[in-house]
Design goal:
The protein is mainly alpha-helical and 291 residues long. It has helices at 20-28, 33-44, 71-84, 91-107, 112-124, 186-194, 199-210, 237-250, 256-273, 280-290; strands at residues 58-59, 67-68, 224-225, 233-234. It has 2 domains: 14-109, no CATH class; 166-287, no CATH class. Residues 13-113, 178-279 form the BEN domain.
Length: 291
């Protein structure tokens, strides 16, 4: 059995402390360890997750003109993540694998789509004796990005990250050589925008579309990331450049370098890390690490 030690630092508000059953419950409703961290963010920062979307003013570091999230609660999130994922004790791993994920969750606005999907989960989620995620097929096309549920129909979409009206969106041809099979039509790009809740999620969905060989039951994408860091292989630079080309087409901003670095790359790397498998595998690995 896993140990659930209390934090070794002062937590001034006792309501932020979670017991073993709460941690297990959150874990069992998560699709990845990154999603587990995102759910902890929602739980520990309730004042930011309201219809006012105040969280969009915050991120972990206070960079990009944002306010900094309460460091004590972020430290507590890391503490709980480390229980299930000991590698998060490494500062580099925490920064590369989780900080971007938490920042992305702050950027994402709550929509009717998310609220509807949450209601569906209350109805369809298996009970405690069947929590093996059997309702999720291995086919990656049936997995939903970041627990976001099915896409909204076009007439109900409100994508505040897309700076151009979708009916006026025309994607220019890339000014670099790209194999034709990877090129998307304007209609295809619009459809992916419709399915996305943030610019980072848009980049992650393009990853799935442009790297089909990595999104199979073999989970080959887990061997890759954007840069080739952390002993991973580097994703094909041409297709990554094409993803950025499409991001720039729908999100033309002056600070594209910062948007790409802080919003898109973390989402791409997180999507590569997320496997198609039962979540009990993470618990098994955590138990082995404790031995």
């Amino acid at each position: 059995k896993l140990d659930f030690p209390p934090p070794d630092f002062d937590v001034p508000v006792s309501d932020y402390l979670l017991n073993k059953e709460q941690i297990k419950s959150i874990y069992e409703s998560s699709l990845s360890i990154g999603n587990f961290a995102s759910r902890l963010l929602v739980l520990l920062f309730p004042e930011l997750f309201t219809h006012e979307n105040l969280r969009k003013q915050y991120n972990c570091s206070g960079s990009l003109g944002k306010k900094q999230l309460d460091p004590t609660r972020i430290k507590l999130i890391r503490h709980y993540v480390q229980i299930l994922y000991p590698r998060a004790k490494n500062d580099r791993v925490w920064t590369l694998e989780f900080v971007g994920k938490l920042d992305e969750r702050c950027r994402r606005r709550d929509t009717e789509q998310r609220r509807t999907y949450q209601q569906q989960r209350k109805i369809h989620m298996p009970g405690p004796d069947r929590r093996e995620f059997l309702s999720y097929a291995i086919n990656p096309e049936r997995f939903r990005e970041e627990f976001e549920g099915p896409p909204l129909p076009p007439e109900r979409s409100s994508k505040d990250f897309c700076k151009i009206p979708l009916d006026e969106l025309v994607v220019p041809n890339p000014d670099f050589p790209v194999p034709s099979l990877y090129l998307l039509s304007d209609k295809e790009v619009r459809e992916i925008v419709q399915q996305s809740l943030s610019v980072g999620n848009f980049a992650a969905r393009l990853l799935v579309r442009l790297f089909p060989e990595l999104f199979t039951p073999e989970n080959l994408r887990m061997q890759y990331n954007h840069s080739g860091a952390c002993n991973k292989k580097q994703l094909d630079p041409i297709r990554l450049r094409l993803i950025r080309h499409y991001v720039e087409a729908v999100y033309p901003v002056e600070k594209m370098e910062e948007v790409w670095h802080y919003e898109c790359i973390p989402s791409i790397d997180e999507r590569c890390r997320r496997p198609n498998r039962k979540k009990c595998d993470i618990l098994k690995k955590a138990k082995k690490a404790k031995k």
